[in-house]
Design brief:
- This protein is α/β, with parallel strands linked by helices.
- The chain has one domain: 2-Layer Sandwich (Nucleotidyltransferase, domain 5).
- Helices cover 36% and strands 33% of the residues.
- It contains four helices and five strands, in the order βββαβαβαα.
- It has a five-stranded mixed sheet.
- Strand 2 and strand 3 form a beta hairpin.
- The longest helix has 14 residues.
- The protein is globular, with a radius of gyration of 15 Å.
- The two termini are 29 Å apart.
- This is MULE transposase domain-containing protein.
Length: 113
């Protein structure tokens, strides 16, 4: 199957909420949007709903070969493990870097990462 990235971002303005997205990587290492949804807030229930629809749309019957790129939200890790038990997940370097720089502020550590 391939690599799928999951993330959410805030929507501000007249319509508030969060935009959940799934982004894929094809064999040519190109990114493409798979799907998105506007929800009230990012939580386990909304991601389970999102992942359930994604699994049906992509006809994922066996989750072997799928790697999810996610941030380190425990409930998201648990939701993926429950819904796609044979898949793997990895953490987004951007999120790891943001957590890392809050603990290690010197330039050398930033360059190493």
């Amino acid at each position: 199957m391939g690599i799928l990235g999951l993330d959410g971002c805030f929507i501000k303005g007249y319509h508030i909420g969060q935009l959940l997205t799934a982004i894929g990587v094809d064999p040519n290492n190109q990114l493409y949007p798979v799907t998105y949804a506007l929800v009230e807030f990012e939580c386990r229930d909304t991601y389970e709903w999102f992942l359930e629809l994604l699994g049906k749309d992509l006809e994922i019957n066996n989750s072997y070969g799928i790697v999810w790129i996610i941030d380190k939200q425990r409930w998201l890790i648990d939701a993926i493990a429950q819904m796609f038990p044979n898949s793997e997940h990895r953490f987004c370097v951007k999120h790891m870097y943001n957590n890392f720089k809050s603990e290690h502020k010197d330039l050398l550590c930033k360059q190493i990462l």
